[in-house]
Design brief:
Bound molecules: uracil
Order of helices and strands: EHHEEHHEHEHHEEHH
Radius of gyration: 16 Å
CATH architecture: 3-Layer(aba) Sandwich
Number of helices: 9
CATH class: Alpha Beta
Shape: globular
Number of domains: 1
Strand order of the largest sheet: 1-2-4-3-5-7-6
Helix content: 40-55%
Structural class: alpha/beta
């Protein structure tokens, strides 16, 4: 688990995340434990104000044990940079912590087995804003079957969190014409973020 150390204030959250990760990485609650190379817990700032949730690790993430490090991850980094964040400043994780073979969609049983780890991460990091990447992740968290178009373009309150939904970076790689819509989603999210957290500038935060 890679984390950002930013002074004493975050050390307790960091320890809690590390403890949770130690327990979680032994998880054998579903069949993905049989095929995974690595458990992909998540990484970033243990006290991030912005937390990003993807769907599940792909091949590169499975190989490295880190979320969003493949082509989708490189695009996510660019999106975050355009919004004024560096990767280490936010917390990045997925709904599933293990790769589904062939990158198939998560199964209901896998989601249910894995959800306590995500909820634990949210309780520790306590982000002000959550960015959800893609329809599958949003449908899973909100327990609906809505198309992405019906979930984008607004803030959605889920548990105690303000969530914004946009295209998954893998979908943007396949459909570059959707990037404009993604940028609109990010700008909307940043407007909300600035109201809640103050002016955003990557250099304002300790690294
Ligand atoms: N896609 C995801 O949803 N998560 C990753 O970590 C990588 C690709």
């Amino acid at each position: 688990m890679q984390t950002m150390l930013s002074g004493e204030a975050s050390s307790s959250s960091l320890k809690e995340l590390m403890l949770l990760c130690e327990t979680a990485r032994e998880c054998r609650q579903c069949q993905l434990a049989e095929t995974r190379k690595n458990f992909v817990f998540g990484e970033g700032n243990a006290q991030a104000e912005l937390l990003v949730i993807g769907e599940a690790p792909g091949a590169e993430e499975d190989a490295s044990g880190r979320p969003f490090v493949g082509r989708s991850g490189q695009l996510l980094d660019k999106i975050l940079q355009a919004a004024g964040f560096c990767r280490q400043e936010v917390y990045i994780c997925n709904i599933l912590k293990c790769r589904p073979p062939g990158n198939r969609n998560p199964l209901q049983g896998e989601i249910e087995s894995c959800m306590p780890w995500l909820l634990g991460q949210l309780q520790i990091v306590k982000p002000k804003v959550i960015l959800i990447l893609g329809k599958v992740a949003a449908n899973t968290l909100f327990d609906n079957k809505l198309p992405l178009g019906a979930m984008r373009g607004k803030v959605t309150r889920w548990k105690e969190f303000d969530c914004f939904i946009t295209y998954h970076p893998a979908a943007l790689l396949r459909n570059p014409e959707w990037k404009k819509g993604c940028w609109e989603d990010i700008q909307l999210m940043m407007g909300h973020y600035k109201k809640l957290c103050g002016t955003k500038s990557a250099t304002e935060h300790e690294h």
